[in-house]
């Protein structure tokens, strides 16, 4: 069965629903892959940034991991939006103005307006 083969591989798998239909593909976290990194950002650096805040006294490892993952997703999202702006200008290289355009175009990035000045 394909679902059993993909269970520990980190690949999406199908699960049978109560009526027998296949549920939506859901990514599965790798469970026993040795040397696999779950975060692309160095957790020690993220922890150092968190501890730089005087209001933070303790930060658990799970909290550090979640913050690192959130930062990765944020950077990925803004980079994709900036790349779309670069493609509109028929370029493949991101420039500062692409980030500025992405910040102006996407409402979720409104909090960043004026930060690159």
Architecture overview:
44% of the residues lie in helices and 0% in strands. Helix 2 packs across helix 3 and helix 3 crosses helix 4. The N terminus is likely disordered. The N and C termini lie far apart (55 Å). It is built from four helices and no strands. 9% of the residues are buried. The chain has 117 residues and is mainly α. It has a domain of 70 residues: Histone, subunit A, CATH 1.10.20. The longest helix has 28 residues.
* Low-confidence parts: 1-17, 20-34
* Class from secondary-structure proportions: mainly alpha
- The 3D shape can be described as elongated
The H-level CATH homologous superfamily of the domain at 43-112, spelled out, is Histone, subunit A
In short:
The chain is mostly helical and 117 residues long. The protein is built from four helices and no strands.
Features:
117 residues; mainly alpha; Histone, subunit A; 4 helices; 44% helix; elongated; disordered N terminus; protein heterodimerization activity; DNA binding; DNA polymerase epsilon subunit 4
What's the helix and strand layout?
Blueprint: H1 2-5, H2 43-51, H3 61-88, H4 96-105
């Amino acid at each position: 069965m394909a679902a059993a083969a993909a269970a520990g591989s980190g690949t999406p798998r199908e699960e049978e629903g109560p009526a027998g239909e296949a549920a939506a593909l859901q990514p599965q976290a790798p469970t026993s892959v040795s040397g696999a990194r779950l975060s692309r950002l160095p957790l020690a650096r993220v922890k150092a940034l968190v501890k730089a805040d005087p209001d933070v006294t303790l930060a658990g490892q799970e909290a550090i991991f979640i913050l690192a993952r959130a930062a990765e997703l944020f950077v990925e999202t803004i980079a994709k939006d900036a790349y779309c702006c670069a493609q509109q200008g028929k370029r493949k290289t991101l420039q500062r103005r692409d980030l500025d355009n992405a910040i102006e175009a996407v409402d979720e990035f409104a909090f960043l307006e004026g930060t690159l000045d």
